[in-house]
Specification:
Radius of gyration: 16 Å
Strand content: over 45%
Order of helices and strands: HEEEEEE
Strand order of the largest sheet: 1-2-3-6-5-4
Mean pLDDT: 83
Number of strands: 6
Structural class: mainly beta
Shape: globular
Low-confidence stretches: 1-14
Distance between the termini: 62 Å
């Protein structure tokens, strides 16, 4: 018996413990960056041009909406649990094992 792509997606969704929030946000990976596609209380999925190995530890920072004139940063440590290669980008699924938020003032851009 063959499981269709729709059936596989449904199985993946049913295995998730929490709901996901779909949004695009900048993800900082040390000196590299990526774009977050979705997040839940226990995981995050983002796209980047950096390849990671499944099972490796990763530290990332996500810029979220915060109070006016301030920047809200969610710093996470996690484990890479999924990797997808598509259209020259690398999709990375991360299980979050620890996180903390930080609020800081926006710094003016100098030209």
């Amino acid at each position: 018996m063959t499981i269709s792509a729709i059936g596989m997606n449904r199985l993946a969704i049913e295995k998730r413990r929490e709901g996901r929030i779909f949004m695009k946000r900048l993800v900082r990976l040390g000196r590299r960056t990526g774009i977050m596609r979705n997040i839940s209380t226990s995981s995050v999925f983002f796209e980047t041009d950096v390849d990671y190995a499944e099972g490796s530890e990763i530290i990332l920072a996500i810029e979220l909406d915060g109070p006016p004139e301030k920047q809200l940063i969610l710093r996470c440590r996690g484990t890479v649990i999924r990797i997808e290669h598509q259209d020259g980008k690398v999709g990375i699924g991360v299980e979050i094992v620890a996180s903390q938020t930080r609020v800081s003032m926006y710094e003016p851009q100098l030209n």
